[in-house]
Amino acid sequence: MVFENTLFEAAAGAYSNVEDMLNYSKALLEPYSSDHAPDELNVLLSGHIPVLGPSFRERSYAMGWIRTQLPGVLGVMGENIGILGSVEELPLLGKGSPSMICLYHQGSTAGYYSNIALFPETKSAIVVLANSISLTDFPDTISQSIAQVLFDFPDPVDFVEFTKDTRAKLISQYEKQAAAIAARRRLDTQKLPPKASS
Q1: pTM for this one?
Q2: Residue 196, domain member (yes or no)
Q3: Which of 15, 23, 109, 162 is the most exposed place for a label (fewest CB within 10 A)?
Q4: Is residue 163 in some structural domain?
Q5: Burial of 197 per CB tally in 10 Å (0-12, 13-18, 19+)
Q6: Cα 25 from Cα 118, distance rounded (Å)
Q7: Please, are residues 37 and 31 in contact by the beta-carbon 8 Å criterion?
Q8: Phi first, then psi: what are they for 92, rounded to 5°?
């Protein structure tokens, strides 16, 4: 395992699948959606500190979850925001729809992306797991695409165009890096001699 015996081992230490994650989601949503949720669950899924504030609607950290009031911006802990550079570049999900809460978690490391989104008011969950790394955080956009169909948002985001734009921005960043490396390259350097074997 890449992260074995490191600080990040806990993040990659659980092997799971969509069915397991949906069962986990159900275990969280059933009591949380009732009037008698355990105190521990209320603490776990309540907002504790603002995330990328200020924000007109709620966007807070909830012990591993990002708690966001829709209409709002999701994906703030994923790769797309890193590619685009700011929260303002991410799409506004649920524009024109009634307010609802989404709790989500995104993950990535060498070889995978993941996204889990919980919607307590409707006891709905979306889980997208991918065993590859691409030029965008596609589990994030797939999850949001499913959400806007599931809840029939009246002003849907064109995630195909969003993905094309995000991909193009990432490629341009690599092109700039390649140009910077090429500009500093010295063509007259000598090849290093092979290391002596011990």
Answers
A1: 0.82
A2: no
A3: 15
A4: yes
A5: exposed
A6: 7
A7: yes
A8: -90, 115
